[in-house]
Structure formats: C-alpha cells, structure tokens
Queue: 2 jobs
Job 1
Amino acid sequence: MRPLPLIALALLLSPLQSCASHPECALGEYESAECRVVAENHYARVLTSHGVEVRFQADDAVDASSWDALGLVQEVESGVVRLRPAALMGFRVSFVPRDTERRSLHVIVDNIAPDMLVSLGPDGQLQPQPNPGDGLLRREFDLVMVDGATIWMRGARPCPPAYRIAVAADIQTNPLQFERILQDLHQQVDDAEAAGEPLLGLLLLGDLAEEAADDEFLRIDELLVSSPVPVSVTAGNHDKAGDEFARFNRYFGPGTFAFDVCRTHVVLMDTADGAIAPSIEARLPQLFDKGSMEHLIFGTHYVIYPDRTGQGLRDEDQSWYILGELVRAGVDRLMTGHAHYWKEYPAITIGDGTIHEIITGTGGASQGEGHPRYGVTRLSFNDEGVDSCFHEVPVPGTEQPGQGPTTDTIDFCTTD
Amino acid sequence: MRPMVLLLALLLAAPAQAQAPPSPPPLDLSLPAKTCPQIERCCVAGTQPCWHPGLSRALLAAGAGAALGGGLLGFESGDSLGTGDPYAQMVGTGLIGLVGAGVGTLLGLLSPRGETAVEDRPGRPTFRLKLSPGGSSTLDEAAPYGLALSFDPTITAGDVFQLQPSVGASFGLGTSADVDPRPQLQAFRQGQDALFPVTLTRSRLKVAAGAEMAWKLPYPLPGVARPASAGRFEIRYRPTVEVRRVTRHPGTAQEQVTEHVALYPALLGFRWHTSPRQRFTFFAGPRVDWIGFSDPGSTELRRGPPVLGGFYAEAWYQVDVPLTPLATTKTSVSGRFNLGYVHSKLDGEAFDLGAIIGFFGPVNVSWDLRIRRRDAPVALQIGAGIWLTEGGGPYIEVALVTPDIALPTRGVAP
C-alpha cells in the first residue's frame, strides 16, 4: 500500500506549472469563456483569398494596425466579404491590401439600420454612399483598392431626442414564437415612431439555441433578416454547451462589446459559462465607463444578482464584483435572461448603492406549465430619464397582451 | 477572539481530565456472523437503540427520491428557478440521499461480519490543515496553491449533547494572474511563444467562525415506541459567519477590494444514523449578506445594509470503514468515505452538466483515515478528496484529533 499514498501525494503536490505551458486557447477549447474572447476577436477580422485584410475597428482607432471585436467578418465566397456589425448605431471597418496590386472586393453589410449612413473611402476622404431606401438591414458595396491604399468604411445613424430599445432573451426550442416577436417589432417600430420615440434596435441576450447546433444558429440568423431594426446579440449557456467550434461567434460575432446609442452607453457581455472570462473581468471598469453618455444599460444572459436560490453566476464573488462596478458606473438598467419569465428588481442593494435589474427571458423558450408570457422589454429614453415595461406578444389562442393570470408581477406597457 | 484563546487553553489542559477514546477491542472472530446483519434488525452491544439498516436506508431512499423527483418536477413545470424555488437544493440533496442509500446498502452487504460500529472512527478533527493544488498550464498565468487552517474542538455533555466551536481561515499561497488573450495584443520575444499581457491579478482570503451543536433525540421521540429501529437521530444547529475578501488589480496598478460577509443565523439540520457505520447529514438555512466594494486605489469599503442572500443547504452521506488488516497491536486504523453536496456558490465551484451551468453547488467525494496509537490521547487524521466541480479540484488534509472536552453531567440518561 505504501507506494500508492506516496504517488497520490506526489501527483497532488506536483506544480502544474511544470507541465507544458501553452498560450490561452491554444487547444481550441471554445466552451471556455476566455477561449471565446479569442474567437470573437479572431472573427472580427479576415484575410481574404486575394490578400485584403478586413478588420472591425473602434471608433477612435487612429490607424488599421490593430482591430476590435465589434463585429463579424466572413469571406462568404472568393472576393465577397460579409460584415455583421455588432452595435446598433454605427461601425467602422478597415480594408488593407497586402500589396500594391489592384484589388476589388464585394462587401455585404448586414444588420445595419435602414437609416444608417455609410461612408467609404481612403482615410480623411470618406464619401457618403447613397442609401437605397429599401428599408432593409442589408447593403452591398463594391470596393476597388489601388496602390495598396487603405480603404475605410464607416456607418452612422442620426440620433433622435427620445428613443427606445427592445430587449429579449431565451429562444431555445421555440424560434417560431421568436419569429412572431420579430414580426411584432414592425408594429412596434410604427408605434414608436408615432410616439416620437423611434425604436433603434433589439438586444438579444443569449440562449438563441437549445444545443448550440449549426442549424439552430442558422435559423436564428435567417430570422434576424426579417427584423425591422438591427439586433445586438450575446451568448447564453445553451449557445455554448457542447460546442467546441465557437459556433455562436462564427454566426453572430462578439459576445462581449460596448457601444453608444445616442445618449446611452450599452454593454453586452458573454456570461454563457455562468461566469465572465478573467480578461473581461479585468476590463469591466473600461467597458462600463459611459464617458459623456447620460445612461448605462448592461445586458447579459445570466442573472447577475443571485437572489435567494440558484440564480446568479457560478461564482458569487464575481457577481458581487460586477454589481459593485455597475453601482460605481451608475447603471440605469441591468438586463438579463436565463430565467424564463419577466421579473423586475427595482432596487437591489449592493454596498451603498442600488441596481435596477430586469429578467426578460421571454424570447420564446418554454416557461413551464404556467401561463406563458412572451415578448420584449421596452426601454424608453426621454427627457424623464429611463423607463421600462414589458411588451407582450401572446401566442395564438391566449389572452390579449396584459391579460390572464400572473399579471401582478409584470409591468406591462400601457402605451404603444 | 478571547473565547477562542480560553477554549484553546482549556483544550490543552484537557488531556488530564478528558477521556481518551477507548482502544478498539481486538477483533473476535468467534462472534457469530449475525451479530449485526447487514440489512435486518440488529442490536449492537453497548449502543442504543437497536438498528434496522435495511429499513433506515429504504426510508432514506424514499425520502431522497421524493426530494429528487419533486425538485425535477418543480423545475420542469416552472422552468424558472425563480425566487424561493428550492428545486436545485432538492435535486442535490435527493441525489446524495439516494446514492448514499444505494452505496450504503452495497457496502453493508459486502461487510463480511455485518455492520458493527467502527471504533474511533474519523470525525471532525481538532486542528486541520488543508492544501489544494494550484498551477496553470496557460502561459504567463498563475493559480496559487490554497491553504486552509481550522480549529474545531469538541465539547460533550454525556451522550446527549455535543458542541463544536470552529474558527478557520483559507487563503491562496500567492496571487493568481490572468492574461488578456486577444490575439491583437500578443507580443513576441525571441525564442518564446507569443506572450499576452497579464491583465488581472487576484488574491483571496476567507475567515469563518461558528459552532455546531448536536442533540441526540430520544428514540424516535419521547413516549413513542421503537418498533422500527430506524436509527439514531440528532438535531443539529450551526450558526456561522464567513468573511470573504478578494483583492483585484483589474488591468491597472490600482487595487480594488470586494468583501462579502455571510451570516447563517439559523442553519438547522439533522444527522440520521442509518446503520452503526453509516449516516446521512443535512443542513439548510437562510443567509444574510453584507456586500462591500471599494473604488480603484481605495481601501475604504462601500458597505451596505444586510440583505437576504442565497438559501444554503448541504447533504452528506458518510460510511465508516473498518481497516482491521492495517491495524497492529499498537495502532488502530479506521477510515471514512464521504459523499456530499453543498448548495452554495461562494467559492467559485459549481457542478455543471451540459447546458446546466451554475445551477448546482459543488459535489464532494473524499476519504478520511484516522490512525491512533492505542491508548494515545491524540490521533492523526489524514484525508484526501476532490470537489467534482467546475472550479473545484483535489485536496489533502492533515489533522490532529485531541480528546473531547467532557462537561460534567447530572442525571443525563445515556
């Protein structure tokens, strides 16, 4: 028996540092949050088949030497590049040919608002491109690069004084209901326009799929084409479980990114692991910094506030850190999914501050035996600050919005 | 801390007045094999009441199965895990009870001489040192070894009441370091792999104090007959307070601190001795939190008022294992197998399964070994285990067991 305890002890005490070390994600374990940080940055650039480096760039990038995970770049066929900006209001992309040969590229830009103004050209000489006015979320451009000059593409939208953003999460096995929600968005766009608060986009907070399979992501990607507004997406636990191929990032781009919507700073974060990657944890103060913006909205899949049972991140300490940073940053709404219902925590006490959290896991996923409540949370930004309510999209055969059982805990929208 | 110092002094003085556990009696192979049969009713000399291990484990399995089924059904019908839903706790506790009853039955049937009590079995030691390995296989990252120390003397009042005050601390033997792996940030050094900048360092400290009290209930209840022999039952109460502090350097030289004080004021439970060698222990209770955090570069914590925190639960099934072949005329040796579930996510450990991520707390499988020189007042206890969880891992323990401090009792019935 003696050798066995000694061997066990030796194994236990042998420092793992002595094993072969390798860089983060060298083995391609995309189920881990940190590995998906690598993936989302990887998919934010591409070197095309004929030698053009296409990169998403931050708005303040001074040159094209680096890039940022603010969108998805794919070469869908030779010489044809598809861009999917992650943000709702704008984007910036650089095209750098590797040599001085004449290069041409056909560029498809998806998920951009119909009122997005796209400009194109060399640095400092960007030319506005005509808006087709077709109301679609897709534009196509032909680029010609000569003498190795870098071409920039920039998209920007006008900002109304008051505006709305819709938020939902959790589709999983019911993309059909999600399709109804997308169809309902068309009416919401009209109603919002009439109310003087245009609907600027949808935040989709994870669990788009049930099993992180290609056909599931492909279906959601197809459905998003029918949306009247651009959609910013982050990942949920069902979008990564069992997936060693970073499929979510391959279809939708980054899961963690920040952008501004007029006077609002929006941060979406990948918590699909029930945790955030350590490198994201390190960047929280930077991501939550709203700068000159008036408002801060944080959207993620997992319910950060652990409440009294099993909700919350895997490690509560990380929850307390995120919540503390949100208090410090002055968050207006913490939006989550994961739990399949709509629930509001108007004032969660965190240290010497409070946080307003809304769970809106209402994108179509099963809500059990109770009365299902599907739809989106409407965030309104106007002179009075930030307001939120639940806009229901009932399944056929159920009551009209806001009627039926379990309505007392839901703050239904009472205006169009 | 003064009471603990006094307690320590009392403990050190205790050997003179405390009774060392009796030496395990030499094995008498002449005893009939049916002294305490594996699953039938049996009476063990010197212990009360009689046992019926088969019935006890069947009752435990039924209760645990009901908890497991109820938890799964509740989650399936609600699909919410909302406020007040106890489903994850029910599933975790039910699984431990069910697996424990099954493993216990198997081990009972495999016991060649029946389930007689194991003398001087492993229990909670007085002084304990626990080490968990660290290390990272990721270039430029560091994960320190973890060290935990605890002091848990045992005070008894006859066979009816037991008190175990406890104080302990755990911390990393260094600072963890994580890199920012974004490919655009890599820098090259000649002859080495790509290097990423270290972007986050963390150090953790946890201090805990509390006391566990156990009352043995008259069997099964006062004035009630005892036909079933369904095992001894103890009511337990364990008020505890824990302070966790994490110090971070998130991408800057300025440190930030988060502090979580968790108070468990009403952690109530029971221990059910399903056989002379096996027992099921359950605790549950509310948690009260105080959360604090600091601004970058400041050590002043922005603390808040108490708020109701996560509902805590834990369940353990333990099986004593006689290791007679290892014993000598001078040394007694006994073992204990532990299987447990802890419904808490305070230490970064969670039992994940597929897309079921972060719902459950950690699962523990461990083994303790107690070695005592016959008639010696102090025993050595060593243990090894693993938290079968994401964020968990193996650990070893080395501990000393000192004699119980026996309080004088008057008229306490054994």
Note: The domain at 122-182+194-406 of chain B is CATH 2.40.128 (Lipocalin).
Job 2
Amino acid sequence: MSGDAGLLEVENLEVVRGGVRVLEIPSFVLHENEVLSLIGPNGAGKSTLLLALARLLPAASGTMRYRGEPISSDRSTFAYRRRLAMVFQQPLLFDATVFDNVASGLKIRGMSRREIRERVMETLELFKMVHLAERSARKLSGGEAQRTSLARAFAIRPEMIFLDEPFVALDPPTREALMADLERILGETSTAAVLATHDQLEALRLSDRMAVMKQGEIVQNGPPAEVMNCPVDEFVASFVGMENVLTGRVVDACEGMLTLSLAQCRIEFPGSAGIGESAVFCIRPEHITISNFDPDAETSARNVFPAVIRRIVPTGVFQKIHLDCGFSLVAYLTNQSLANLHLDEGKRVFVSFKATAVHMIRSGK
Amino acid sequence: MKIWKQFSLLLAAVTACIAFGLPAPASAASKSIILATTTSTQDSGLLDVLIPIFEKESGYLVKTIAVGSGQAMAMGMKGEADVLLVHSPDAEKKFMAEGFGTTRRLVMHNDFIIVGPASDPARIRSAKTSVDALKRIAQSGSLFLSRGDNSGTHAKEKGLWKGAGITPAGQKWYQQTGLGMGLTLNVAAEKKGYTLTDRATYLALRKNLGLAILMEGDAKLLNVYHVIELNTAKWPKINAAGGKAFADFMVSRKTQEVIGKFGVKKFGSPLFFPDAGKKPETLGL
Amino acid sequence: MDLLVDGFAKAIALLTSLDQEVLAITLLSLKVSVTATLISLVLGISSGTLLALADFPGKRLIVSIVNTGMGLPPVVVGLFVTIFLWRNGPFGYLDILYTPTAMIIAQAVIATPIVCGITVASIQNLPPNLRLQILALGATRLQMVLILIKEARLPLLAGVMAGFGGVISEVGASIMVGGNIKGYTRVLTTATVMESGMGNFDMAFALSIILLLLCFAINYLLTRIQQRERPR
C-alpha cells in the first residue's frame, strides 16, 4: 500500500453524551505509518475522539473504514479492535507481574505459552525493561508503570496505536526518556499512531501531522510546521504558542504586500485584503529581534519600531520580554543575549521582524 | 497469579467433596415423619433414647421439631407435622374438637413442681395445695418467673393462676422470660425467684441451680403427655401411616417399659410414668 | 468462672477425644455453611458484577436494596424460607423442610446479598477506564468480566469471609428451617442454643469454642491468601 492510502477513514463521526453533542468530525483520515497528534486543551474532545476511533464508545455514530473495509457489525468491530492497541493516561496495569501484564493481550488472544514467552521477552527488550519482568506491577514507579503499559500495548504488534496523554503524569526526565524510546519504537515498528496531548512540544517531536481540537471539532489539521506557523485562527495561534496575535487596519495593498496601521506603527507583510478592512495577524515571539540602536541601515527586516521594555520574565532557558511599541509584543531572548544587550525593565529599545515572520489569520470588516 | 489458581482449585475441590458428601434428602423424604413435640421431652433426653429404637424398627426417619406445645399444635393445624407429642390437655381437647386430630392417646405423665430459693420467703412449703402456694407468692410479692412462651408448662401455669383467682400479668413481682424450661430455671436461680417446672428438667439440672422443691404432689400439678395422630381430611399431605406407626410405638408395651425405666440410673427415680391404656380419670384429671 | 474453666476443659476434651456426635455436628456445620457460601459466591459475584457493569434506570434503587440485604436478619430469612418450603406452601412439593438442603438454601439467601454487595463495591472501585483498557487489549465481553473479577479478587475475598462468617454463626434461620434434628440437621449454633436451653452451659460453651476455632481457622486461611497477594 502506498503511503497516501488511508489506513483508517472516518466520516461524519458524532458522539452525543447526555443529549449534548460532544464530538463532531465530518472527516478524519489516518495514513499508514503515520503519527498524528491531537492537540488541544483539556475538554476539547481528544480522549473522546480516541475512544470513538478505537470503537470503545457505544454512543458514536458515523462510518468507519479500516483498510477499505467498513467497520459496522459487532464481529467486524471485534476483529478491528484486535488489530489496534490503546494506552491511557493512567497505566491501568493488572495486579500481576510486569511479565504477566505485557503478556495479557497475548493471553486474551489465546497464544501458546511458548509464543507468549518469546513475544513478551522481545517486547521487554524493546522497552529496555527485561530486568523488571518478575516485578509486581504494584511496586513499579510511575515511569516504569507507564512503560509497562506501553509494552503491553506493543506486545500484540498492533497495526495502529492510540495514545491518550501517556506522559502527562510523569516528571520531565522520565517523560524525556520514555518519549525518546517511544519515538524510536514507533519508527522501528512502523506503527501508525494517534497521540492525544496538550503539549505542543511533545506533538512536534513525535508527529508527522497535527490536528488541533476545540470543543469537539478539529479546527486545523496539517503538517506541524504549517500548524505552528500558520494557525487558522486566534485559538490555534494562542494554543500553539503564537503569543503575539494582533489586529490592525489595512491602509495599503500592493503586489501581494499589505501595509497595516496599528497604533502609530505601519506593519508590512505578504497577504491580500481590501483597503480599509481590519486584519488579524500573528508573530511568533522567537522571530522578534531586539537591539539598542535603530538597525534600519543594516537589517533586511522591513518592520522596525521603537519600544519600551515593560517586564522581563525568566522562563528557564529563555527570558520572556514584554514590550510596548504602542501595542504589546512578546519576544524571547536567551539569557546570554539579555546580558550582552544590557536590557532592563523601562529601557528604550528597537524591535524588528521580517515581513515573512508575520502570518495573517483573517481579514474582514 | 499462582496463588489465585491454587485457591480456585481448592474451592473446586471443596465444592466437589461437599456435593458428594451431603446426605441425600430426597430418598429419605417418603420415609420420614415430622414429630412436633415439646422442649421438655427433648431436653430431658427421653426422645434421644426412644427415637433411635423407633427408627430402627420402622425404617422411618423422624424429624423432631422441639417447640412449645402451643406451637406444636399450630404446626398440626397447618398440616406441617405428622404426629404430635404434647402436654397441654385443655388446648388438646379443643384441637380434637375442631377435627385436626383423629386419635389422641395417653402416653405418660410426670409432674410439675414449684421450685424456689431454699429460704422460701413466701413460705409456700407449708401450703396445702398449689393454688394456696401461688396465693402466698402473690400476697408476699415474691418474684415469680413465668415461661411466657405459650408452652405446655406455661399453659399449666396460667390455669393454676386462674384457679387461684389471681391475674399476675403486669404485676411487679411477675416476670416472663420467654425462654425454654432450662433457661427459665437458670434465671430463677440467678434472681432467687419461684417458678413452675416439670420434674424431669429440674432433676436434670438440679446440681447447678440451688433451687429447692417447695410444692409437689398436688393432683393439679400433673403433667400429662398425649400422642395425637393428625387428620388427613384437613391436609392430604400428612403422612398418616407414619404418624400412626409412631403413635402405636409410643403406647406399645416395650416402649412403655423403656419410659418407666428412663432416668432411674442417673437420678435415682424415674422422670416419666408410663400411662398407656389408662383412663385419664385414674390420674385425677 | 468455674463455668469458663470447665467449658474450656470440656471443649478440649471433646476435640481431642474426637467425640463422634460433636465431630458430626462440626462437619455438618462446615458442609452446610461452606456449600451455602459457595452458592452465594456464584450467585453474588455474577449478579454483583452484572449490577456494577450494567447501566439502567433504577440501578441505584437496586444497589440500595442489595446493601440493605447485606444486613438481612437470619430469623426473617428463616421465617420466609420456612413459609415457602412448608408442605402446603409454594415449594412444598420439594419436601425439603427440616433437611440440610433447606438450611443451605436459607444460608445462601443470607450470604448472597453480602457477596453481591461487596462485589458491586469492589468492581466499582476499579479505575473506570480499566474496562476500556481490557476491551482495547482485544478482550471479548466475557473475558473482560472475568479479568475485572480477577482484578477485584482481594476485596472479593473479604466478601467470602464476610459471607461465610455470617452464615456459620447464624442460628435463627438454621433452627427454623432445619429444626435442630439430632444427627441430621443439628449444627454447632443450634446445638449451642439447645444445650444452653437445657442448662448444659459447659457443653454449650464447648460448642461455642469449637465454632470460634472453626471461624478463626477459615478466616486465618483466607487472610493469609489475601496478605500473601498483597505486597509490603
């Protein structure tokens, strides 16, 4: 099968709970070998969508096809379910040893003892946890437990795996180690996956495609770079880390370039809109440059404005700089640059950004 | 995991053992009879002697349900027993008159006695009759313990109070235990009160009690046992043949001899006096 | 005080001499109560699991009724079972009143709500997503139910203990439906009541001690299984 073929195709998927429609997906496709991230805030319907895709929600309506075969009857649903695996936020391990946990899906399938033993050991090796095989699940740390849960899911060699925020309860180093292994294993086994998360970095790292969810709907769906840099609306923009979402009035439109007026400034960027319309646009904070002198002469950036530093907030590696240039802007600087530039709250500086760093979201009256 | 398996195996094994080891009730059903009787016959140990003999001779399995005479007759009225062995003559006559029984035969008697603390605060030792004794207890306000359980003994006691023209119910000195004879005797001993008891139970328990016999020998204190066969016209499911077999056994000469000798070895005197074939009048009734 | 010493001495004597009658009574107690407990396990665990997993209007009402049933007074059960089994009652044709079978039925009626109630609670205490996780592992519905019961085994073991403890120590129902027939339906509790009714307190005391030892032995066994399964 070619990479473009839809492994799982869904149409008009709807879930109604307590008389309220909590999920409405007109169409959804997962391709072979593809890792798709579902991102969105809590309550956006990510878990519901995963459960519906795994056919674990009885209230779901709509049509689903797996490798072109419709999944409708109880029998086809059961056969379908045996080809996928699911990992939840909690490890949900059985009260047994790690070995028995990893073996559970195989036991359910009635495999022989010998086959089970081989497969379990193989899977444990893949997850670097052979030494834990005989440990009771109740004596595992949080990371080990979630690792066991992942191993249990991969032991059945699923064609497709659904992961519902599997790392959310883990501390950063544990999360990092497990994510690295998952990335490697997804690649090695070429398993198609749908990963629900509310962490865009996690999504960026693991996925080939991102789908942003809001209130039970997918509002944007595309390659990570596209979603990150060209959000379709303010919601997506704010969710993927576009902290500068601004609104201005179009004063000039010429040869694909727009000029907007905002406060005392004129901002130029590529796009099309009618003169006099208002336009919503965004700039990623890391694309904004700060300097002590007017860089007009030596920079290719078309947008340069004087600004005052209002606040500097440390956020680990970066410092988050809140600027006022008649409108508010947020920029990120490394600690090093901050020191080099002798920046301080209240200081006057110049901000600049390229026309191509600006993404227009929409325009209208 | 392993332990769980072992446990399931254990459970299965126990189930199997029990399923095969239980007595099969269905086979015994047709050849069994239900004997509704009084606690005094069971508590004295007499039935433990007689029933194995009967079961061996007749092949019937006897299910002895030991309750008060009142409840035994209630079972008879509902057709839930096959034969009765009771000691509540007035109620029995009514039972027969209403057609619940077919034959009622005299089996044996022993007697009731009034017991109490040896100090005898109501001074009933010198009373001539049982009625006189009860009057003295009432007048002195000495504690009297009644079974209060509608048993034959309780019926006898109520009859005696009636004869004395006293209504004890509600009096401060009159308490109802609601218990069997043995326990009521123990309560009387603990509270140093008087009570009416059958002689057999008293003799069986005498050593632990510290209660003395203070009134005996009055004809009114006789405790007479009858065996009653039940009327299948009222309840067709009654095992009339089994009931008759048991009743015949109770009045047979051999059984009567066993009754006469029962308790002699242990207590020095018989607990029951065989009366089969006698006319009730000869007992002063 | 004498009574306690005498009773204890007598209990030891009866046990060590393997008194035939006492042995038979003890064995019958065990047979009746263990069988009743096993029946209640089958009925209680299956109905309890069903009740815990199913969703239907009136479920709360039924769970409340089951929880009330956990404290069902044995005499009430005894009375109802007696009325049903009377010769002239609805199940009179079975002819099992005053038999060990009737006692097993009555005790199973007492223990089933206990096991059922504990099953409902233990299954509902499992993480709600566990059911979905098991199905996602490819289980059939039956496999899922069996795995859930297995996951709830430790609290269920407490249910077994509670059920068994409830029936082996009850007297009200046994005496009513069994009749305390010597050598046939006389069990430890009914014999204890009878012996104390006859004023034979030492014998009653001895029987009580045997009953206590029996309860202890069985609970000790089950607790050991429970503790061995449990880490720390």
Note: Chain B has a mean pLDDT of 86.
